[in-house]
Design a protein that fits this description.
This protein is α/β, with parallel strands linked by helices and about 450 residues long. The protein folds into 3 domains: about 180 residues, Four Helix Bundle (Hemerythrin (Met), subunit A); about 100 residues, Elongation Factor Tu (Ef-tu), domain 3; about 110 residues, 3-Layer(aba) Sandwich (Rossmann fold). It is about 50% helix and about 15% strand. The protein is built from 16 helices and 11 strands. The strands form 2 sheets. It has a 6-stranded antiparallel sheet with strand order 4-3-6-1-2-5, with helices on one face. Strands 9-8-7-10-11 form a 5-stranded parallel sheet, with helices on both faces. Helix 15 links the parallel strand 10 and strand 11. Helix 5 packs across helix 6. The longest helix has 25 residues. The N and C termini lie far apart (about 55 Å). The relative contact order is 0.10. About 0% of the residues have low confidence.
């Protein structure tokens, strides 16, 4: 993630601004308690900005970066919010001489406790990626509720300054911004900007499904390589899900997405989707695009989708492109015929299909070999993270600058290693059980 995004600076400034007023209100008061209150403020700021990122408003990507980067910021802001809230609750924030405690103060205290415990539970569910996606998605809706409780806690708890003083007004503005964002994301989908589309064609592409959508009104304007959030009415799958648009833009506004059987949602969608289904499309999002100069594209499995769109937009006057398409079997390859047709038509587009069941897995050194002069070549990647990391390590060692290695890691939900820990615990429990069974037998 680039540290030069204006959103990173905005977050830093938002965290630092309260320090302009904290020394004045802390004068003569307990420093530890004041530090605890500052931690609580940063938790609120982090939650509010996280809520704003979740809206996917048009200004989010220009400020916080492409959606893959924005959602990583969203995750880390959530983690900081829970850490800061926990520390705020652990370090005593009570101060002497703030007046009589009222019933409203007691209610605000209770609201804060509920908000903290709720956030703790939701963050654990979020980072523990072994918990099923549909359960996480359902529970994640409550994060805004706990933000509302936390904002209520801040506004009506006893504190050494009033809500009408500069620090109080600043934090009040933060709370209002977060509440507006939460109200927006909680509103019915029909009140959010989206385009209406209808499914007109379903085409089997290897083990994937290509879905063509025709606009019912004003079409979406996108660039090859971008993705959109798409939802389908009447299928029991109304929650918007991100899909890469796998065809370059056309004049009539048709869109194509290609779905691979990667999880519960996509498997259910592939089995239920029919021609004539209504869809709502939000977007476009992302900044994955054709680079300038010679380039190597590396696609693994369903990672071919952005390259299928980008291949449709290149011309014979563009710089040379080599596409390495790694797939287990040629019969599983999506859009292979159209990619081959592009390679036959455009001399500077080379298609290399790596059939791993026969030729073995793609090695990072092979990618480096196709890249040639690493000072001039851009490498674009879409596929599993493990292969991406291996390729990057080799290319970096051979001198490829980081700015010339492009990938989009869009993950609404990412973990911090708890899934790995869970698997290790399960493996260990299995070993112990097998030993116990062998002894008993």
């Amino acid at each position: 993630m680039s540290l030069f995004r204006p959103g990173v600076l905005l977050i830093a400034v938002a965290f630092v601004l309260p320090l302009l007023w904290v020394p004045g209100v802390a004068d003569g008061r307990d420093a530890g308690a004041m530090f605890s209150q500052y931690l609580g403020m940063t938790a609120l700021i982090a939650m509010a900005i996280s809520q704003i990122i979740a809206t996917r408003w048009p200004g989010v990507e220009p400020v916080f970066g492409p959606m893959d980067q924005s959602y990583r910021l969203h995750k880390w802001l959530g983690l900081w919010a829970i850490i800061a809230s926990f520390l705020h609750d652990t370090v005593d924030a009570d101060m002497e001489g703030l007046g009589r405690v009222t019933v409203l103060n007691d209610i605000a205290e209770t609201a804060g406790e509920i908000g903290l415990n709720g956030l703790l539970l939701l963050v654990v569910i979020t980072v523990a990626t072994f918990i099923p996606y549909h359960l996480w998605k359902w529970t994640h809706r409550f994060i805004g509720v706990f933000f509302v409780l936390s904002a209520f806690h801040y506004l009506f708890i006893q504190k050494p300054f009033s809500n009408l003083e500069p620090l109080g007004l600043y934090m009040g503005l933060i709370c209002v911004a977060g509440l507006i964002a939460y109200a927006y994301t909680s509103a019915p989908r029909r009140f959010r900007p989206s385009r209406k589309y209808t499914v007109t064609q379903l085409e089997k592409q290897g083990d994937a499904l290509a879905v063509t959508l025709v606009p019912a009104g004003r079409p979406l304007k996108h660039r090859a390589g971008q993705f959109a959030f798409i939802s389908f009415a009447g299928l029991g799958l109304g929650e918007p899900h991100p899909f890469t648009l796998s065809a370059s833009p056309v004049d009539d506004g048709r869109l194509r997405m290609t779905i691979g059987p990667l999880g519960d949602y996509t498997i259910r969608l592939m089995s239920r989707l029919q021609v004539g289904a209504d869809a709502r499309v939000e977007g476009p999002f992302g900044d994955f695009k054709v680079a300038r100069g010679p380039q190597v594209w590396v696609a693994a499995g369903i990672g071919i989708t952005p390259f299928a769109a980008m291949a449709g937009s290149i011309t014979s006057t563009d710089a040379p492109v080599t596409l390495i398409y790694s797939v287990r079997e040629r019969s599983q390859a999506a859009h292979l015929d159209e990619l081959q047709a592009t390679a036959d038509r455009i001399e500077n587009f080379t298609l290399i299909v790596r059939e791993t069941s026969r030729e073995g897995r793609l090695k990072p050194e092979e990618v480096a070999g196709y890249a040639g002069n690493l000072k001039k070549t851009h490498v674009l990647y879409c596929g599993p993270a493990a292969l991406r990391k291996a390729i990057w390590q080799v290319l970096k060692a051979q001198g490829l600058p980081a700015r010339k290695f492009h990938y989009e890691r869009f993950e609404i939900r990412t973990g911090i290693g708890l899934d790995y820990l869970f698997r290790r615990l399960v493996d260990r429990a299995t070993v112990l059980k097998n030993k116990a069974d062998s002894v008993s037998s």
